[in-house]
Amino acid sequence: MTLRPIFVAGLVALLVPPANAVELPEIVVTATRTPLSVSQVPAASTVVTRDEIERQQAKSLPQILKTVAGVDITESGGPGKATGVFLRGTESDHVLFLVNGIRIGSATAGLTSLELLPVAQIDRIEVIRGPRASQWGSEAIGGVIQIFTRKGSDGPDVSAAAGAGTFGSYAINGGAGATIDRTDYRLDGSYFSTTGFDARQPVPGPFGLDQPDDDGYDNASLHARLGHRFANGIEVDSFIWRASGTTEFDGSFQDETDFLQQVIGASALFAPMERWKFTLRAGENRDDSDNFAPDGTFASRFDTKRQELAIQNDFSVAKNRLFTLGADLRQEKVAGSTDFTETSRDNTGVFAQYLAEVGSHQLLASLRYDDNEAYGTDSNGGVGWSYRWPDGVRVYTSYGTAFKAPSFNELFFPAFGNPDLGPETSKSYEVGVEGRQHWGRWGVHTYRTDIDDLIVTVSDPVTGAFFPDNVESALIEGVEAEVATDVSGWQVTAVASLLDPKNRITGKRLRRRVKKSLSVDVSRELGRWMAGARLLAQGDRFEDAQNTIRLAGYGVVDLIGQYRFSRQLSVRAKIGNLFDKQYETAHTFNTANRNLFVSLHYAHR
What we know:
The chain is mainly beta. The protein has one domain (4-604): Maltoporin, Chain A, CATH 2.40.170. The protein contains five helices and 33 strands. It has helices at 4-14, 50-56, 61-65, 133-136, 408-412; strands at residues 27-28, 36-37, 44-49, 71-75, 83-87, 95-99, 102-103, 122-129, 143-149, 157-165, 169-180, 183-197, 215-229, 235-248, 256-273, 276-292, 298-318, 321-336, 344-358, 361-372, 376-388, 393-404, 424-437, 440-459, 466-487, 490-503, 516-526, 529-538, 541-542, 550-551, 554-564, 569-576, 595-604. It has a 22-stranded antiparallel β-barrel. A hairpin with a 4-residue loop joins strand 21 and strand 22 (393-404). The longest helix is centred in the N-terminal third of the chain and has 11 residues, at 4-14.
């Protein structure tokens, strides 16, 4: 069956205005580091709320993100396995991940292990598409994904859930929080375990492998958050989010990892003067892994620690005029069984931003300067304009530059790293039109991103040794269309993406990128019942840079259902891959066949 009719039908559906209203979140903070209405941001954004996470019955962060506009997820063998995230066709390390304002990820690999972050403690996710280096610094070429953890709410909030399913999977989680006078608190814990399935097909050749076993995964996590508002207006907030466990995979030299993901943060906010708001934020992220060979012996250890301090001043220079001035100080340290030639580096970034609203016009200008002791300095900026009509339609355009700092592996790995590497750089243009009418919301966004000085592995023509170098460039052009509405009581969300990601030098498509993607989500509540379905259809992709290994396109349907016994107690069920589609998003790596998960939920709010 060809996928073309599915894509055509989806694009047509996006242009048909149905009949009722959809209420959607209005405020984002990731785009400008200040609270701002989505209608004022000259960028495409998506907000995923706690209610939406629970409605999807998502068991992992990749499950949540894979149907967000502009996001493409590749999986390497099931839950807890290496996952790639391509935001608007950029590389996986061209996406900045934050947790409550704190940068996360491995300084050695330069990637974020989002597959290891539990979803039970997530309250909200903001996805800002397009460059944000002038606000946040390195990595924000394709965009920024920020996770906000749960916090205490008005009155007692107690929740608990337990469930089990195919692949020997089971999960249990619980939490409680409240706001008492000026203090709010939240405490959560969760555990997930699965025996999994065979992560990878047999690979022939001298460096091949054949490990026909189930590859399991377990994750135990803890989250705590505490905040207080003093009588003088000072607000403080602190949190810890920790996840640890084991993931198994198929590999010739290593096939098991014991991991630790941890984020700790604290912030203080106060207003020294009526027009001046001051924010101080400090945090630490740990990304640790102990890796083991197929015979169970220790193979390697990589430990990353990132510590940072952020200072931000917001000045209301006039009505609807906001000037922001701040600085980020970050230190990265690596340790483990590998003797890197350098084990630490500092980065200092200073930034300024101006926001203005003049009638129906919104203006944004931002500038940032970063100084990194490992590779030098980098400056980036961005400008944006939007106009909003009274009927809820708005148009915007923006331009921005961004960069990605080389990782410790690329700079300092023994007998491989290249200390002369510079950062990867980009410039992006975007135009979008969006609407929020009585029947729902819609949007169409088109963009172009030029990336230069891409870091790839090359070989020395004399010695034959391999090393990374800034030698490639890429051009990515794309368009996204999305609509959310209510059709005869059915909540409908559809997202379509068309993408042309190519290597400028060879003209070939960038590896593992799809050109066409469509997601359609429908659900409805009928008294105590809720039922829904989701279709994800994607075109083909190539595993290699030469475009010789083609992975076929596919379509996958998931079903969800829920029955409420009372306001507090409900049972939920999800069938994944209903039609048992066999497909790959990474060559030789298996994906889940038809599966079922059933869970019981209690919530008192």
